[in-house]
Amino acid sequence: MECVLDGGKQQQRYSDLHVLTNIGTIILEVLSLDQCPCKTRPPLPFKTRNLLKTKQKMQREEAGAHKKQQYQVLEEIGRGKFGTVFRCFHPSSNQFYALKLIHNRLLTDAADRHCLEIEAKAMIFLSPHPNILKIIDAFQDGETSTIVLQLCQPRTLFDRIADGPLLEPHAASLIKQLLEALTHCHALALAHRDIKPENLLFDDGNNLKLSDFGSAEWFGEGRPMSGVVGSPYYVAPEVLMGREYDEKVDVWSSGVILYAMLSGFPPFYGDSAAQIFEAVLRANLRFPTTIFRSVSAPAKDLLRKMICRDPSRRISAHQALRHPWILSGGVKSGDLS
Ligand SMILES: Nc1ncnc2c1ncn2[C@@H]1O[C@H](COP(=O)(O)OP(=O)(O)OP(=O)(O)O)[C@@H](O)[C@H]1O
């Protein structure tokens, strides 16, 4: 996962500040002074400000260390670029969670730190939503940063696709849940920018949960995004072209996932990352007959509308939710009898 820092784009509503103070210290640290009500007070002398900052940091780390003790860390359940994920138990709530532990020394530059900050901030900002992974807590002590998350099943959508193509009603149900999550993100001016099957988890009730907001970014009218972010196979062509882009990059990636769910393989592939990128840039969408003979025309129609090279002609997540194939639950007319 590639992360870029596109500085100064944090947006936070005041109404969310109470949530932020409750959720823990990582969040407090990333709130910029611009958002703080005390901005209007006369500035403190430089030395006093520094002393105050050091004291606050020590207090946060102490509180973080105390919070960490409240979780019993159990077995490892996954590993990412920056951290290790463990199953954990929280005795006072009698609940199991996933605990993501990041060693601060591995966050070597500002872009890495930004990934961690935006991940927690975005999840709080978007919460609650039935298809977005719930954040329980976030804190840090001197050496580590911790994010406590709702615990999901070990198998991601990647594992399900690896087992073979999915039937249309199943694929329709999953893509609908992803589109619901994205419609919510986009309505709040947040793009995920790293939609891929590995980031789609499932809770105990088999509900799809969008996770890993480390590449997310705020956008808005007259405020396009930029930077090469995402994963091969799923990244949109306009991202690779180095152009400014909008939230439709998430729709492209979701279309690629839908294609993979229905066929068992991605629409654009190659032997190396460079070859995959070339295929994505060509954006030549094909439906090989051997595989797609049994896929319905409405499903292919939605794929064409989502995996559309021109972002201005590409369907939005909200529009995709109203596509006939989604509305029918992926049931072919012949299957209705
Ligand atoms: N809430 C969770 N419940 C269950 N398993 C999880 C949870 N969160 C993460 N995992 C597992 O841990 C793995 C690593 O997660 P993590 O979020 O650290 O990595 P990542 O951000 O997807 O990877 P990278 O940073 O390399 O992109 C995931 O692939 C998943 O299998």
Automatic annotation (TrEMBL):
Instruction: List the Pfam families.
Output: Pkinase
Query: Where is the Protein kinase domain positioned along the sequence?
Result: 71-326
Q: Which residues bind ATP?
A: K100
Signal sequence annotation: none
UniProt key word ATP-binding: yes
What UniProt keywords are attached to this protein's entry?
ATP-binding, Kinase, Nucleotide-binding, Serine/threonine-protein kinase, Transferase
Note whether Transferase occurs among the keywords: yes
Q: Which GO terms describe its molecular function?
A: ATP binding; protein serine/threonine kinase activity
Functional note: CIPK serine-threonine protein kinases interact with CBL proteins. Binding of a CBL protein to the regulatory NAF domain of CIPK protein lead to the activation of the kinase in a calcium-dependent manner.
Q: Which family does it belong to?
A: Belongs to the protein kinase superfamily. CAMK Ser/Thr protein kinase family. SNF1 subfamily. Belongs to the protein kinase superfamily. CAMK Ser/Thr protein kinase family. CaMK subfamily.
The protein, known as:
Protein kinase domain-containing protein
Lineage of origin: Eukaryota, Viridiplantae, Streptophyta, Embryophyta, Tracheophyta
